[in-house]
Specification:
Shape: elongated
Structural class: mainly alpha
Helix content: over 70%
Number of strands: 0
């Protein structure tokens, strides 16, 4: 099949063709997601070169183990799970595991567009953000990751369960407990 005709297919259809050794179908997937994979690895705290290495590793592993892909799950979620795991492994090997906490916490707190703030308001907001980052960092790892995937990346419970290798009820409980802990902190402030 011509590559231009393949570009109209869904990710699941392209993976089905890839499993049957259609290299052009796999090439379309790589072209479709390569830059997104690099950006995802960079968001995890990796520099540009390491992010490119992670992207190459992900697509190489995906091709070698393409038979493992289950079409019941969205391809993008599957791919981002690979990126996440490889990025975490890379950060651990480099001894930079603390970046996982800092990066996840800061992305929650992007400045919201709106009216101009006074210096006092800006200072108080910054202090509150720093305290919230500290509170998020104190959440158990599973709660922190589940809440991050849900609130920041907008993932569904099912996608989060797949990424964290847990059941959907476990994910719902983790997010509920994380919100509850953060809510109790907010009442103290």
């Amino acid at each position: 099949m011509e590559r231009c005709g393949l570009e109209e297919l869904t990710d699941q259809e392209l993976m089905a063709l890839s499993v049957r050794d259609d290299r052009k179908a796999f090439e379309v997937l790589v072209l479709r997601y390569y830059q997104e994979v690099i950006w995802a690895a960079e968001r995890m705290g990796l520099d540009k070169m390491l992010a490119q290495d992670i992207a190459q590793d992900c697509f190489a592993d995906l091709y070698v183990h393409r038979g493992r892909y289950q079409p019941a799950f969205p391809f993008r979620t599957y791919l981002h799970g690979m990126v996440r795991h490889k990025s975490i492994d890379c950060l651990r090997k480099a001894g930079k595991e603390e970046l996982l906490l800092e990066g996840e916490g800061e992305q929650w707190l992007e400045a919201q567009p709106g009216r101009e703030q006074s210096p006092e308001e800006a200072y108080l907001k910054k202090e509150c953000r720093l305290q919230l980052v500290a509170q998020i960092g104190q959440l158990p790892k599973t709660q922190r990751k589940a809440l991050y995937l849900y609130a920041v990346e907008g993932r569904s419970y099912r996608e989060i369960a797949y990424i964290l290798q847990q059941t959907v009820p476990q994910v719902k409980i983790a997010i509920h407990r994380a919100r509850k802990r953060l809510g109790s902190w907010k009442k103290e402030v």
